[in-house]
């Protein structure tokens, strides 16, 4: 990969300095606790402090990346899933080879709790699902709610219940032992999408429809910085961001507002070279991959992955033709820079070079 991409990848995999905040940030144990006698009122706190220190030490001894395991296919019968399974094995092997070649087998630099903050937990079927926005994540969360017994059908769960209902647990809500155990014993899945399609889909969703968060937070800042002579009214309401302006923001190393999960790289959301995912699904074959995964984990037979569009259902789905329409307003240099920005995602998941 080019130097920038190697540097970006190095940020994921470089050996970390030992920093105490890995455990003190999550457990606010009094530093004085270690000097307390066992019989004192602080003895419980002292014990917790000792346990936490022990777990932290254990975490530092973990070999990253975690070992890849063969998929458990004991529940698969017949030839129905043969083609899907072959594609799955090819993807897993490709990602593992990529990580061996470029990951260097180094330790995790990232704070553990941050590294697993996008991973949803379903304890009944022992699933970890890393959320990649604009790659079928709303319907995946609906499926997790059904599997967990929170809902009886994926088809009657609203968008707000999925995203704001707090029904699902994330891996960073567990203690170190809980995280470590689940990472090593649960089936870990990630679903990805062509980076350029995902980017255009995110722009259409957040900036071409009324939005009470993205317009005032991102829209205002983008129009103010990247639109010459913008009128006060446009700056104040933040609506009407153009795709070219959005791209200037994305590629700006001094962005007026930070990154957002909807257009953040998968390499930064799910850490696929440190957390070895057992299953790599793709948005391009979403239903087929998702239903095969449900078979693998022993989900109820009647449970099928929903195929409806979560929001703005009358809009055409973002596909290669739609992407071309958006890219034609950009210069060749801008297109190349977007590709460079998502370079690792293109390589890791074997997506073909876009129209640059």
Key features?
single chain; 356 residues; mainly alpha; five-stranded mixed β-sheet; 47% helix; 6% strand; globular; disordered N terminus
What does this structure look like?
The protein is mainly alpha-helical and 356 residues long. The chain has a domain at 73-196 and 262-315 and 344-349. Helices cover 47% and strands 6% of the residues. It has helices at residues 3-13, 21-24, 43-61, 82-103, 112-115, 137-147, 159-164, 176-185, 195-207, 214-226, 232-237, 243-251, 266-269, 286-296, 320-327, 332-341, 343-348, and strands spanning 119-122, 127-130, 169-170, 187-192, 279-282. A five-stranded mixed sheet has the order 3-1-2-4-5. Strand 1 (119-122) and strand 2 (127-130) form a beta hairpin.
Topology:
Blueprint lengths: L2 H11 L7 H4 L18 H19 L20 H22 L8 H4 L3 E4 L4 E4 L6 H11 L11 H6 L4 E2 L5 H10 L1 E6 L2 H13 L6 H13 L5 H6 L5 H9 L14 H4 L9 E4 L3 H11 L23 H8 L4 H10 L1 H6 L8
Parallel strand pairs: 2-4, 4-5
Antiparallel strand pairs: 1-2, 1-3
Helix pairs in contact: 10-12, 12-16
- The percent range for strand residues is 5-15%
Instruction: Kindly report how far apart the N and C termini lie.
Output: 17 Å
Computed over alpha carbons, the radius of gyration is: 22 Å
Indicate the percent of residues in helices.
Answer: 40-55%
> On the 0-100 scale, what is the average pLDDT?
82
How do the strands of the widest beta sheet line up side by side?
Answer: 3-1-2-4-5
Structural class: mainly alpha
Strand tally is 5
Number of helices: 17
């Amino acid at each position: 990969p080019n130097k920038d991409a190697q540097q970006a990848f190095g940020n994921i995999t470089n050996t970390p300095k030992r920093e105490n905040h890995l455990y003190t940030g999550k457990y606010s144990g009094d530093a004085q606790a270690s000097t307390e006698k066992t019989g004192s009122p602080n003895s419980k706190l002292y014990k917790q402090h000792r346990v936490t220190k022990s777990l932290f030490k254990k975490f530092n001894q973990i070999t990253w990346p975690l070992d890849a395991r063969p998929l458990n296919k004991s529940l698969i019968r017949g030839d129905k899933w043969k083609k899907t399974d072959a594609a799955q094995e090819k993807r897993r092997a490709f990602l593992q080879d990529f990580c061996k070649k470029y990951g260097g087998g180094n330790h995790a630099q990232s704070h553990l709790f941050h590294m697993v903050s996008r991973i949803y937990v379903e304890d009944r079927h022992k699933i970890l699902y890393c959320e990649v926005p604009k790659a079928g994540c709303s319907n995946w969360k609906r499926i997790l709610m059904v599997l967990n017994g929170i809902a009886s059908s994926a088809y009657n769960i609203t968008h707000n219940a999925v995203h704001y209902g707090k029904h699902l647990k994330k891996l960073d809500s567990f203690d170190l032992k809980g995280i470590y155990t689940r990472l090593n014993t649960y089936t870990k899945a990630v679903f990805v999408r062509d980076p350029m399609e995902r980017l255009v889909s995110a722009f259409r969703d957040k900036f071409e429809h009324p939005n009470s968060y993205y317009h005032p937070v991102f829209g205002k800042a983008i129009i103010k910085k990247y639109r010459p002579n913008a009128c006060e009214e446009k700056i104040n309401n933040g609506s009407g961001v153009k795709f070219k302006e959005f791209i200037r923001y994305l590629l700006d190393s001094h962005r007026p507002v930070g990154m957002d999960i909807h257009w953040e790289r998968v390499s930064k959301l799910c850490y696929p070279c440190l957390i070895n995912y057992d299953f790599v699904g793709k948005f391009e074959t979403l239903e087929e991959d998702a239903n095969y995964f449900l078979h693998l984990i022993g989900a109820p037979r009647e449970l099928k992955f929903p195929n409806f569009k979560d929001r703005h259902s009358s809009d055409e789905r973002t596909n290669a033709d739609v992407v071309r329409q958006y890219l034609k307003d950009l210069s060749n240099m801008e297109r190349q820079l977007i590709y460079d920005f998502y370079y690792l995602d293109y390589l890791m998941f074997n997506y073909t070079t876009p129209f640059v």
